[in-house]
């Protein structure tokens, strides 16, 4: 092959007729050869061009580099790290988690009030439980008008308003923040960012009930947050559409019975604190929700590292749950 | 060398410190140039509205309507290559299925075809993970085009104390993958003989003679 090229003059073109079909390019098309006829002065010709270190912008981008890599690169260049001068105030408007989460009894919601067991369950008042009673007393010390009966009605309204605000949260962000704490805001909206949610509250199957109450301080002793868990047994319908308007979960006309334990939180030591949805307790014995119709490839398991911290999953341990896509709406 | 004038470029915006220093050490010869290549590139990352197309939420479709095909918009900024040559490659993959495009690009002879292939693979992954596309092979390339990015100017010597400019070109490559089967013709196909005849006949029959009895 080399001999052929050595005998060629610059005026010669090597054209191999190629059959270019729509699917496969069978032969390469070659036009004029980009090679000087006299290889003797190749190096001199190359020396005419002033070499430049061209940046490869696709390989390592500044914002994708780890801090250690950035630091070592800057050290190479002899640069000092930039000094950040941003001082930002932060305000704790909600406690980050749940204080001593309520553990719902197994079989709740399945026994009718007529049976002995069901009647017993119904009579489990929050007033009879020591810690919860103390917490309710503490709340009453800051808020004179607080009664469990009135609170339960307010809680239902807040719950409904929160879900209705979730449906329009892209256009009206502030409304959702009114009914939902910052922790719950992230959990509710993260997966719903590019989806359309259509939710409807039909009726309450049994009157909502306060099952648990706790108070706790955050950072300093006089910064108190109160959390009250309410049990809702209701009928709701849910339909979720993806970004393109296609239905991916549920149905507008399908009404389902829902048993939920919703934690409401209030910053009681603050003058303008209000009760807001904070967290939802999903017990272990609760059956998994309906899987989404769409199929997907199972992700490959990550390699087991010795010091890997446990991931805090919203739905408890995944090992007991079936290997099926669950809508986390 | 000393006859050659200074090349200065304006600094716009706040570049990362690394990119500034990168550029200042780029010329190994003693020629003075301003060191703001990094600034140029950190400013020019291509069309920023391209990614916003991934965030538009369409209203729910009625039950009888045909399902809207999912799409994903992806791009890569500052891919090095000649604009005109790269344009051919962008046109080449238009209208192909994703698998076909990946296959064909691996046999193209240009360096930036590897970058284009990477962009397509990234876009495919995005489509499955973020846009709710069920089957990763069920995608075709609906839009594929390039735009000019910042260029770096280098120099070369000519005879008789003359200098020439070499441009190292960078372009942004944009691609939009859509779910489903590609249409039969992405580019306007050449009409067949019969069609051409019909068009000619129609043109002839549409003639109107004005100012006649």
From TrEMBL, chain A:
Sequence ranges assigned to domain Tim44-like in this UniProt record: 132-282
UniProt-listed SMART domains: Tim44
Biased composition (Basic and acidic residues): 58-78
Disordered: annotated segments: 58-85, 292-329
Stored SUPFAM superfamilies: NTF2-like
Recorded GO CC terms: mitochondrion; ribonucleoprotein complex; ribosome
Subcellular location: Mitochondrion
Domain of life: Eukaryota
Family: Belongs to the mitochondrion-specific ribosomal protein mL45 family.
Designated name of the protein: Large ribosomal subunit protein mL45
Organism of derivation: Cloeon dipterum
TrEMBL record, chain B:
One Pfam family this sequence matches: Ribosomal_L22
Entry annotated with the keyword Ribonucleoprotein: yes
Gene Ontology CC terms, in alphabetical order: mitochondrial large ribosomal subunit
Gene3D superfamilies: Ribosomal protein L22/L17
Keyword Ribosomal protein: yes
GO term, biological process aspect, one: translation
Molecular-function annotations in GO: structural constituent of ribosome
Stated family: Belongs to the universal ribosomal protein uL22 family.
Source organism of this protein record: Cloeon dipterum
Domain of life of the native organism: Eukaryota
Keyword annotations: Ribonucleoprotein, Ribosomal protein
The protein's name: Large ribosomal subunit protein uL22m
PANTHER family: CHLOROPLAST 50S RIBOSOMAL PROTEIN L22-RELATED, LARGE RIBOSOMAL SUBUNIT PROTEIN UL22M
